[in-house]
Amino acid sequence: MRTPAAVLLLGLTTGCTSMVLAEPKLLVSPYYALYQIRGKVSMQSRATPTSAPEDNTPQDLRTFGQDHHKDDVGVRVDLGDGFAGLRLDYLKLDLHTSKRGILDDDWGLLLQDDVVRMDVEADDLRLTWIEPITKFSTSLREQPLTFQVGAGGTLAHRDYALRGKTDDGLRTQDAELRGDLVFAAARARATWRDFAFDVDYAICPQLTLGGDWEDVQQDLELRASYTVPLRDLTFFAGYRYSRMSATGHEHELRYDADLLIDGYQLGVVLTF
User: Fold this and answer.
1) Contact criterion met (CB below 8 Å) for 66 and 97
2) pLDDT (tens digit per residue) in 202-254
3) Which residues pair with 135 in a beta bridge?
4) pLDDT band of 5, cuts 50, 70, 90
5) Which residues neighbour 29 within 8 Å (Cβ) at sequence distance 6 or greater?
6) Has residue 82 got a pLDDT over 60?
């Protein structure tokens, strides 16, 4: 299902005249990410250059050496009241590997029984608008315990490159997974003293603006943070879990990918 970009942009900016941006804060959050990619990928192949493409069985990414965490970097920029508002999040992934495996079936130009490895490079960009829905407080150990809930939407651009090659480097096969997605998003926060716990969840029920991504995509983030008293400085640790699937073509060979990205974040929030 494809949705016009204007509809999404209207939805993301509908709340921009709300009290969220009456006196907005600017929060900049660089973070260190320790992520891994898992899942299965398949790609058609040809017995000869002129023969029809043949379907192949999916290969586990462990076969290509992708079974461990690698460190990368990201940055998040928030404009709003500190909870709701506009958020831009960019993550750069370079998941290179020295590990290798043996293919159980062909994968494009890579052949069954080849010793192979795969590098994964990705740019993951998300623009989210969250409008506050409710806020209420109670007490814990004679200190206020506050809960906030908000909802909105996310426009995401994902550009993932799977670069497979034989161990000797003589044959290579790439799969380029690109496209734009529309998510429904929700956020919840619990705050006690100088501590906060955030849950962000987004789901894309096949709302695409074009590209290779398909089926239901999901994204979950958990973050615990501590704000230094009397300073505009917050430290946080988090976890992200993201499921995605795609179908596309590379040189008329169809590929299918069912992927999972997950890992940990550690960063700091600077308030201006």
Assistant:
1) yes
2) 999 878 888 999 989 999 999 999 999 877 799 999 999 999 999 999 989 99
3) 148
4) very low
5) 75, 76, 77, 78, 236, 267, 268, 269, 270
6) yes
Q: Which two tokens stand for residue 210?
A: 């074009």
Reported as a single tens digit per residue, the pLDDT across 116-167 is 999 999 999 999 999 999 999 999 988 999 999 999 999 999 999 999 999 9
